[in-house]
Amino acid sequence: MEKVSQKDIDWLLNLNQDQINDRSSASGSVKEKKNRSLLSKILLWVFLIPVLVFLPFFILIRTSVYLNLNYSLGGWTSLSCGILAAIILLTIYLFLLFRRTKNKKRLLKFSFYGFGSLVVTFCLYGVMYLSSVHAKSDQVQRVYRSLHPVLRVAVATTTLADGDLVITDIKRPPEDYSAMGLPINQSSLHFTQENGYVHAIDLRTIGRSEFRNLLLQQSLEILGFGTIRHVGTADHLHISLPPPE
User: Fold this and answer.
1) Is 57 exposed, middle or buried (0-12, 13-18, 19+ CB in 10 A)?
2) What value, to the nearest 5°, has the Cα angle with vertex 227 and ends 222 and 229?
3) What is the C-alpha to C-alpha distance for residues 148 and 197, in angstroms, rounded to an integer?
4) What's the pLDDT at 199?
5) What is the 3-state secondary structure (H, E, C) of 35-98?
6) Fewer CB within 10 A of the terminal residue: the chain, N end or C end?
7) To 10 degrees, what angle do helices 6-70 and 149-161 make?
8) What is the DSSP letter of 187?
9) In whole angstroms, what is the distance from residue 154 CA to residue 179 CA?
10) Could you read off the pLDDT of 14-30 as tens digits, one per residue?
C-alpha cells in the first residue's frame, strides 16, 4: 500500500477548507442578494403607497376640471364624471389586490358600491361644509356654498394634505375694491359669474414657509387651476377656475 505523505494530508486539508470557504461565500452572496431584494421592495412600496393614495383624489379633481374647461360641462356634471372616474380607479385597485378571487361579479358589485358610497360622501362633505379652522372669518364660511362645486371639492381635498390651509376670501362685492383703494376689476372671478357661482378663492400665505406656499401653488396648477401670487395689498395666493368659454 502506498504510504500517504504529510504533504498529501496537508493538500487534502487545504482542499476541504477551500470548499468550505466557497460554500460560505456562495451562501453570503445569496443572503446579500435577498437583503437587496427586500430593501428594493420596501423602497418601492414607500414610494408607491403615497402615489396610490393620492391618485384617486387627483383623478377626481383633474377629470372634473378638464371636462368643465374643455367641454363646457356644468359644475355638477363635471364633478359627477370625476367621481365616476375615481370610483373606477379604486375598483381597479381592489381587483388587482384580489385578482385570484373566483366570484369576480360579486367583487365588482361590492367594490363599485362600496367605493361609490365613500367617494360620494366625501364630495358631499366637501361641497356642503367648510370648517372654521380653514376660514378666516364667519363671512367666508357663509359664502362658501356660492363657490363653484369643483373648487369646493378641491378645497376639501387640499385640507387633507394641508391642515393649516386658510381661505381668506371668496365672494367679493365691488365695494371691497374701493375700500382697498383699487379700481374695480369687472372681470374678477370673485364676483358671481353667469352660472351663479364664484370661481376664485384667496389662500393665506403669511406665516407659512415659502416652500409650503410654492408646493401648494404647484399642486393646484397640476390639478388644472389658475394660480397667481399677489403681494400687493395683502400677500395671498389667488386660485381660480376660469369659466368655460
Assistant:
1) buried
2) 130
3) 5
4) 96
5) HHHHHHHHHHHHHHHHHHHHHHHHHHHHHHHHHHHHCCCCHHHHHHHHHHHHHHHHHHHHHHHC
6) N
7) 150
8) T
9) 30
10) 555 555 555 555 555 66
